[in-house]
């Protein structure tokens, strides 16, 4: 309860939307309900550290439907990807066709998700 009438609450929500504080809405559908039972986090290190190489890698990730998240990170690798595919065979194909096709990848480390006792991405 927020102590507001429905119309006052709606006006506040609309104001938050106009100001860009609320930027959108989405349905949270589990990967398994979309036929995507294999989830992995993949750290990727690049052999070239130029802006051009990074932008090219980011464009490749944006174009790949299996890449649900792409984060530029600090540490031993430049990128952390969340990859969702149907199964191990589909991941192997993604690994070969997407990651294997990019010329400046130096390292790839895959961490397969076995379970998610806490997941608050919404």
TrEMBL record:
InterPro entries: AsnC-type_HTH_dom, Dimeric_a/b-barrel, Tscrpt_reg_AsnC-like, Tscrpt_reg_AsnC/Lrp_C, WH-like_DNA-bd_sf, WH_DNA-bd_sf. Residues 1-37 form the HTH asnC-type domain. Keywords: Activator, DNA-binding, Transcription, Transcription regulation. Gene3D superfamilies: 3.30.70.920, Winged helix-like DNA-binding domain superfamily/Winged helix DNA-binding domain. This is DNA-binding transcriptional regulator, Lrp family. The keyword Transcription applies. It comes from the Bacteria. PROSITE patterns: HTH_ASNC_2 (PS50956). The keyword tRNA processing does not apply. GO terms for molecular function: sequence-specific DNA binding. PANTHER family: LEUCINE-RESPONSIVE REGULATORY PROTEIN. GO terms for biological process: alanine catabolic process; response to L-leucine. One of its GO terms (cellular component) is cytosol.
């Amino acid at each position: 309860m927020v102590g507001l009438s429905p119309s006052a609450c709606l006006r506040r929500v609309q104001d938050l939307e106009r100001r860009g504080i609320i930027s959108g809405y989405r349905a949270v559908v589990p990967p398994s309900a979309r036929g995507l039972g294999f989830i992995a986090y993949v750290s990727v290190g690049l052999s070239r550290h130029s802006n051009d190489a990074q932008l090219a890698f980011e464009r490749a990730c944006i174009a790949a439907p299996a890449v649900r998240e792409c984060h530029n990170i600090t540490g031993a690798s430049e990128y952390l990807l969340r990859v969702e595919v149907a199964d191990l065979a589909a991941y192997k194909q993604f690994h070969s066709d997407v990651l294997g096709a990019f010329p400046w990848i130096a390292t790839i480390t895959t961490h397969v998700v076995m379970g998610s006792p806490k997941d608050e991405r919404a």
